[in-house]
Design a protein that fits this description.
Elements: H1 3-35, H2 45-80, H3 96-102, H4 105-136, H5 141-152, H6 159-169, H7 177-183, H8 199-208, H9 213-224, H10 228-236, H11 241-252, H12 254-269, H13 273-278, H14 291-300, H15 305-330
Length: about 325
């Protein structure tokens, strides 16, 4: 074997050994780290307070107000619903209040009126807000600001004043605005809030014919944040404006729709001032009675606080169940 061939063999052996050393250099520490990794230690409460205690000071005032004015009244309502509570005192009676509600035809009618009102009004408000916001979206930035303010500013009006205006519109005499307008086309006059068959329809119409300014603003803002690339791709495919609105805009607005659906449903379940002003507290003949109106009359007119608290618990359960169903059916992992 010549010297040159012997030197080549030595160099190849040295290169192979150095390569193996490099591999062991990169692999061994990793395996050691994985094998010797210490378990994460749980921070003690004292350590957490030392590090984040100052931030809890900022939350404490708001949390205190929540506990005093929201959480404690809810707990007190649950306790009162199990008692025969009156002004002079009360005693524990278990579920007797709920059994009385199940057999009370007025309460059952109040539940039916509340559910019917919420179903029609919430569906109409969501649809109307989405359509109006879609019509505003193609306009310029200045038009967006103008129309958002135009639809939102009426919300600052008092709900009592708005209900008084609608009471005048649906007045039973021929000089009410609704009857006057219908008389121009040869219809009417109708009794509206003066009739047991038409009073609830008038209350529902008063809510449906009011454009929901908050929903318009939220939908308009959400549409402005949707990605333009999807609409450009749809244009290349020759999609019509309605197809883009149906297959792109509406599905991407599911988080906003879910939020508005939950909020509007809760507000519809809490219907009170519109019925109290327009139909004098649920008349005629309890045709427009709602759960909140019945809670008010039971507690503050008849002094039966336990029975009224049971009604409030039922209303809370209804709102909770509906909200859970809405979250499960409309929740989305994609937000814009």
């Amino acid at each position: 074997m010549t010297r040159r061939s012997r030197a080549r063999r030595l160099r190849s052996r040295h290169w192979t050994r150095s390569r193996l050393r490099r591999r062991s250099y990169w692999t061994k520490p990793t395996n050691n780290v994985i094998a010797t990794a210490a378990p994460r230690r749980r921070r003690s409460l004292a350590a957490v307070l030392r590090r984040y205690g100052w931030s809890y000071l900022f939350v404490f005032p708001t949390f205190s107000l929540f506990v005093v004015f929201t959480l404690l009244p809810v707990v007190q309502g649950l306790v009162l619903s199990l008692q025969n509570a009156r002004v002079t005192g009360g005693e524990f009676i278990g579920l007797a209040n709920f059994e009385a509600l199940a057999a009370d035809p007025v309460f059952i009618q109040a539940v039916g009126n509340t559910v019917l009102y919420a179903t029609v009004v919430v569906a109409a408000q969501i649809t109307l807000a989405l359509v109006v916001a879609s019509l505003i979206q193609p306009l310029g930035p200045r038009a967006h600001v103008f129309y958002r303010a135009l639809f939102y500013l009426p919300l600052v009006n008092s709900a009592i004043l708005v209900a008084m205006v609608w009471r005048w519109i649906f007045n039973a005499n021929p000089y009410g605005l609704a009857n006057t307008a219908l008389s121009t086309v040869g219809l009417g006059p109708y009794l509206w809030i003066g009739s047991s068959d038409q009073a609830l329809i008038a209350v529902i119409l008063s809510a449906v014919l009011t454009i929901p300014g908050g929903g318009v603003v939220l939908y308009s803002a959400a549409m402005g944040s949707l990605p333009r690339e999807l609409y450009e791709a749809a244009d290349l495919d020759g999609a019509s404006p309605f197809s883009k609105w149906r297959h792109i805009t509406v599905p991407l607005l599911r988080p906003t729709t879910l939020y508005l659906l939950v909020i509007y449903t809760i507000l519809a379940f809490q219907l009170f001032e519109r019925v109290y002003i327009m139909t004098n507290g649920g008349g005629p003949n309890n045709a427009t009675i709602t759960i909140v109106q019945l809670i008010y009359s039971t507690a503050f007119q008849f002094g039966r606080y336990g029975l009224a608290s049971a009604m409030a618990v039922v209303l809370f359960g209804m709102a909770l169940v509906v909200a859970v169903v809405q979250f499960r059916s409309l929740r989305s992992d994609v937000e814009y």
